[in-house]
């Protein structure tokens, strides 16, 4: 079974985006980062997909995780590694 792709919609200076990427980097998880700082079309795409305009918005495979708090909650609950494998 292939490892699911991880996608994050972020902005450059968002502390929550930085924390989410730090956790994924610590776990040595490759991810695709889509910057929405200066790209209204990408921000609109993110909002339409996530139903939220806040960043980060994170997907593991086709499953929308939510933001940084939800990512860390999965980690604390011991569920993140299973989702990433």
From TrEMBL:
Any one Gene Ontology cellular component term annotated for this protein: cytoplasm
Keywords carried by this UniProt record: Cytoplasm, Disulfide bond, Electron transport, Redox-active center, Transport
Entry superkingdom: Bacteria
Single GO MF annotation: glutathione disulfide oxidoreductase activity
The UniProt record lists the keyword Signal: no
GO biological process: cell redox homeostasis; cellular response to oxidative stress
Keyword Electron transport carried by entry: yes
UniProt cross-references to InterPro entries, sorted A to Z: GLR_AS, Glutaredoxin, Glutaredoxin_subgr, GRX_bact, Thioredoxin-like_sf
Residue ranges of domain Glutaredoxin in the record: 6-65
Family the entry assigns: Belongs to the glutaredoxin family.
Function summary: Has a glutathione-disulfide oxidoreductase activity in the presence of NADPH and glutathione reductase. Reduces low molecular weight disulfides and proteins.
The protein's name: Glutaredoxin
């Amino acid at each position: 079974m292939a490892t699911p792709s991880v996608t994050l919609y972020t902005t450059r200076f968002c502390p929550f985006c930085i924390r989410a990427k730090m956790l994924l980097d610590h776990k040595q998880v490759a991810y695709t980062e889509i910057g929405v700082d200066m790209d209204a079309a990408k921000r609109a795409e993110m909002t339409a997909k996530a139903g939220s305009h806040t960043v980060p918005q994170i997907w593991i495979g086709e499953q929308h995780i939510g933001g940084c708090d939800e990512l860390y909650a999965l980690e604390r609950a011991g569920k993140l590694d299973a989702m990433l494998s």
